[in-house]
Amino acid sequence: MADTGFSACAAENCNASYDELLTNISPYAWAYAGIALGLGLSVVGAAWGIWLTGSSLVGAAVKAPRIRSKNLISVIFCEATAIYGVILAILLLSKIGDGSEGSSGSLPEDWNYNQWYFAGYSLFASGLGVGLTNVASGVSVGIAGSACALADAQDGSLFVKILIVEIFASALGIFGIIVGIIQSNDAEFPST
């Protein structure tokens, strides 16, 4: 039977831990992963909301063609979640700097590792939090926009009432980006 390498680590009593794993990944990688998650999940939330709203809008417009242009505001509210992700990505990218580690490519002796890791993890958490918030916001705006289109097709007086519910659903994305900005406020990568 061939040795797969797993038993070698057990025989040598390897003490690999999660803190070693987390500290051996560059904080710049954590920061860029947070930016990617924030932007990517925000676009997913917007697309999901537009899909929910758009499909109901097109279906309801068959019965009542007058709702087509008026209910496009629901699609705009969904698209705002993607814009929140873009805003966050720009803000977080400005905190990274150029990523240089000195002219020799090695870290200097007096390098502030705690600040370095804090910045990377903070930007990751900020991006992930905003991305997940924007997925929830996009879906909730999409569901409210779908209900708005269907209700407006039945009774035109319901449009404004349901639109207010949709505005509150859209506020979730605004709250998410505010929390993300606060979360990443003190995250600055040390300069060499």
TrEMBL record:
One of its GO terms (molecular function) is proton-transporting ATPase activity, rotational mechanism. This is V-ATPase proteolipid subunit C-like domain-containing protein. The lineage of its organism: Eukaryota, Sar, Stramenopiles, Ochrophyta, Pelagophyceae. PANTHER family: V-TYPE PROTON ATPASE PROTEOLIPID SUBUNIT (PTHR10263). Belongs to the V-ATPase proteolipid subunit family. InterPro entries: ATPase_proteolipid_c-like_dom, ATPase_proteolipid_csu, F/V-ATP_Csub_sf. The chain crosses the membrane at residues 29-51, 72-96, 116-146, 158-182. Residues 34-92, 124-182 form the V-ATPase proteolipid subunit C-like domain. Its main location: membrane. It comes from Pelagomonas calceolata. It is found in: Membrane. SUPFAM superfamilies: F1F0 ATP synthase subunit C (SSF81333). It is a multi-pass membrane protein. One of its GO terms (cellular component) is proton-transporting V-type ATPase, V0 domain.
